[in-house]
Amino acid sequence: MSKKVRVLLYYKYVPIENAEAYAAEHLAFCQSIGLKGRILIAKEGINGTVSGDYETTQKYMDWVHSDERFADLWFKVDEDNQEPFKKMFVRHKKEIVHLGLENVDDEDVNPLELTGDYLSPKQFKEALLDENTIVLDTRNDYEYDLGHFRGAVKPDIRNFRELPQWVRDNKEKFMDKRVVVYCTGGVRCEKFSGWMVREGFKDVGQLHGGITTYSKDEEVKGELWDGAMYVFDERIAVPINHVDPTVIARDHFDNEPCERYVNCGNPFCNKQIFVSEENEAIYLRGCSPECRSHAKNRYVAENGLTQKEWADRLAAIGESLPQAGA
Hints:
Elements: E1 5-13, H1 19-33, E2 36-42, E3 45-52, H2 54-65, E4 76-80, E5 88-92, E6 117-119, H3 121-129, E7 133-137, H4 141-146, E8 147-149, H5 163-169, H6 171-174, E9 178-182, H7 187-199, E10 204-207, H8 210-216, E11 225-230, E12 237-239, E13 261-263, E14 272-274, H9 277-282, H10 289-292, H11 298-302, H12 307-316
Parallel strand pairs: 2-5, 6-10, 7-9, 9-10
Antiparallel strand pairs: 1-3, 1-4, 2-3, 8-11, 11-12, 13-14
């Protein structure tokens, strides 16, 4: 039996001087112990997901905690049977969370100075059941489609950067109500809830530690979550509800329950779709006829299909390759 892989999810808003140099130092240490994952470092803090065996991840946590800036950093620890990362990346960025406030002519938010009230998993569950509280999902649309809290509002946006403008456009709907926000691990909500407070919302809360912490809480056990949680690594979908789990996502082609996310085979489309392995083979991972017959279709290239095999696959579903010169 293969050894369990530990996955560490974490962040901390803390001033980091010479963030670019620290990112290089951080990468060197991670590579020296064989850690894998993705870390963002900026002058406002650090945000990462990394993985390795028990010894490797323990070395990393001890090293991070030995720095007084991160002595109290909260690592959320999970286990998996597969390695969720192929390489180790440490990037120096302008910010660890990009809220897109330049799009609404606003200044960035410092969560160390302004953020929403922290809610424990139990308090958050109570908020979900309170009809006078609005629970707002702050994640990207494809994250919501895979899974979300029951009754949570899905903003009409594609990504997190569009959220401030959407809130301003819909302010009258919940300006005078209690608003509670949530995200994967908490890093986005720290900044966004602070922005909402600055916008004048009187009662703003956030799920402390995010969905990840809610799932592992012994009291709530992930209850009232529908579907799976999207994660930005090879796992894609992670179970959350340990009481009455459900599958809410549907296969792009036959509408059957499916939590397998892939990118469309056409690199110029790249739309994320739910699809079973069987339907992926039938439809060549293309979300549309145009993508299935696109000259750069990645499924065709990855599987080494000949022109005839490609044409035969399309013919089986009533489609064809474009004529030369068309």
